[in-house]
Specification:
Blueprint: H1 11-19, H2 23-33, E1 41-46, E2 49-55, E3 60-65, H3 72-87, E4 91-96, H4 97-102, H5 104-117
Parallel strand pairs: 3-4
Antiparallel strand pairs: 1-2, 2-3
Length: 118
């Protein structure tokens, strides 16, 4: 397992996010990632960020974005998050909540492909 720095001040926030997952996060977790052959973790603290889903075995982060991520300020924050994750050797896959709800199979296939390519 690869070690990544983490901000322990985010532990309570990460716990709250795990308890209060969005409908789309619950769908992806319970219907695909939870039983995936390579382990994923929910709301993983990496540096000063909390990744929606993280697979250390594939050095992969999956982010689900709601409509608020389309605003300029949020897009800049997302870009910084992605740049940070990539700077420490992690690949980031981003999907909109609409992708998860309208094309769940395609999202799962994209995740599976990314894991297999690692």
């Amino acid at each position: 397992m690869t070690f990544h720095p983490r901000n322990d001040d985010l532990i309570q926030n990460a716990r709250n996010l795990r308890k209060n997952m969005t409908k789309e996060e619950r769908h992806l977790w319970y219907d695909f990632l939870r039983d995936y052959p390579i382990r994923f973790r929910r709301q993983e603290i990496i540096g000063n960020y909390i990744a929606d889903f993280y697979c250390s075995g594939a050095s992969l982060i999956i982010e689900l974005d709601g409509s608020q991520h389309c605003e300029d300020a949020a897009m800049i924050k997302d870009l910084r998050r992605t740049e940070y994750f990539e700077s420490i050797g992690l690949q980031v896959l981003r999907f909109s909540n609409l992708d998860v709800m309208r094309n769940f199979r395609g999202v799962c296939e994209a995740i599976d492909l990314a894991v297999r390519q690692q």
